[in-house]
Design a protein that fits this description.
- This protein has 15 helices and eleven strands.
- It is an alpha+beta fold.
- The chain has two domains: 212 residues, Spore Coat Polysaccharide Biosynthesis Protein SpsA, Chain A (Alpha-Beta Complex), CATH 3.90.550.10; 155 residues, no CATH class.
- This is Glycosyltransferase 2-like domain-containing protein.
Length: 393
């Protein structure tokens, strides 16, 4: 596929303008890529070729290219990736025009046809991404296959973790977010990647195992605070203390974990439910968190006595509504959830789609005299959308 990849890259408008270099890392391939690359080098300047005799991991090859790159910005192009001719230029111009942003990303087609050129999308699935919000990164990776980032940030946080085989770019994105680096969605930029059984992101259980490593590494109070704080800084200054800020972040994160809208793959939401449990279990003394955590038991089909839940507190109105819900048909009713006092953007708003089973229901004063957001979780809509793929206990 190296020939199709190089043909795609030299057709990028920014390459034609002399503003892009191409570095090819041949990691011990036995398919005579060197001959193909030399043919392109004879026709085009700014193409470099490096070969290692032994096979290397994907991210070791990326790191090798980064060490040799001369550009201000970096992007990856795996051999089965393709780009709309203006894709990389759109991303570059966006970073040029937004000096406060460290990474830009666009949309993606997922094809099942090898060497399918851009513009031949009959067998490709369109996967539109979403506006950037740092908390979303704890739920999923929204950057697709062809993001563009500043070399300075790469040098600041270090190389890709070469222990990863499939999700090193996800780990890198979270490291950027922890440093407060802001990303930007560029909807005009479109790329394409090939979906096949041998792909690192879909082969065996590697990606799932590495997602669990990422969970272990980043699902903690310190990481959540670092990832949320930069964009929430002006709002959180109004809060009383650091613990108040953490509660705000965790309430938002738990609600965000309910939004099963993965752009780039169809997957089951069990890991998202783990994120919900992690978030809503973070404050065991708060009746607000106790109320929200009850939803997890309801989704998993756990049977509880109504007296086990929703401890007495001042805001009996919402408590009583949820108790009446428990007395009815929980597969069809609506459950009230408390949100943060701050107005973080929802996943549906970031993706530009209408509300579904998690519906904003205005604001309410809680039992601590704080004005916070209120949500309705509609069970019937949820089961219809997720096809009941949550394991029942």
């Amino acid at each position: 596929m190296i020939e199709g990849c190089l043909e795609d890259l030299v057709q990028q408008t920014i390459f034609a303008k002399g503003e892009m270099e191409i570095l090819v890392i041949d990691s011990g391939s036995e398919q005579q890529e060197s001959k193909i690359v030399r043919e392109f080098q004879n026709k085009h300047e700014r193409i470099q070729y490096f070969r290692t005799e032994k096979r290397e991991t994907l991210y070791k090859a990326w790191n090798r290219a980064i060490e040799k790159a001369n550009g201000e910005y970096l992007t990856n192009a795996n051999t089965d990736d393709r780009h709309e001719p203006r894709c990389i230029e759109f991303l570059v111009r966006s970073l040029d025009e937004n000096p406060d942003c460290g990474l830009c990303y666009g949309n993606l087609y997922r094809s099942i046809v090898p060497n399918e050129k851009f513009g031949e999308e009959d067998e490709a699935h369109s996967c539109e991404s979403q506006e950037f919000f740092p908390g979303s990164l704890l739920l999923h990776y929204p950057y697709g296959a062809q993001p563009l980032w500043r070399r300075t940030h790469q040098l600041e946080i270090g190389p890709f973790n070469e222990e990863f085989k499939a999700l090193g770019d996800y780990d890198f994105a979270l490291r950027l977010a922890k440093r407060g680096v802001v990303s930007k969605y560029v909807p005009q930029a479109w790329g394409k990647t090939l979906r096949h059984d041998g792909a690192l992101s879909t082969k065996d259980f590697t990606a799932l195992q590495e997602k669990k490593l990422i969970i272990k590494k980043y699902w903690d109070a310190k990481s959540v605070s670092e990832i949320y704080h930069p964009l929430a800084r002006t709002e959180t200054e109004k809060l009383q203390n650091h613990h108040d800020s953490l509660d705000e972040y965790f309430l938002d994160l738990g609600l965000r974990a309910l939004c099963f809208y993965p752009q780039f793959a169809n997957r089951e939401p069990q890991l998202d439910l783990r994120l919900l449990e992690f978030a809503f279990s973070s404050n065991t003394k708060s009746p607000i968190f106790a109320n929200n955590l009850l939803l997890l038991d309801l989704l998993l089909g756990k049977k509880r006595e109504r007296s086990d839940f929703l401890p007495e507190w001042e805001n009996d109105g919402i408590r009583n509504k949820n108790l009446r819900f428990l007395d009815g048909n929980v597969s069809e009713g609506e459950f009230h959830l408390y949100g943060p006092t701050l107005n973080f953007p929802s996943e549906t708003a970031l993706k530009g789609i209408g509300e579904s089973y998690l519906i904003s229901h205005g604001r309410i004063t809680d039992g601590f005299s704080r004005d916070r957001n209120l949500y309705l979780f509609c069970f019937a809509k949820f089961w219809k959308q997720t096809l009941k793929n949550i394991p029942q206990e």
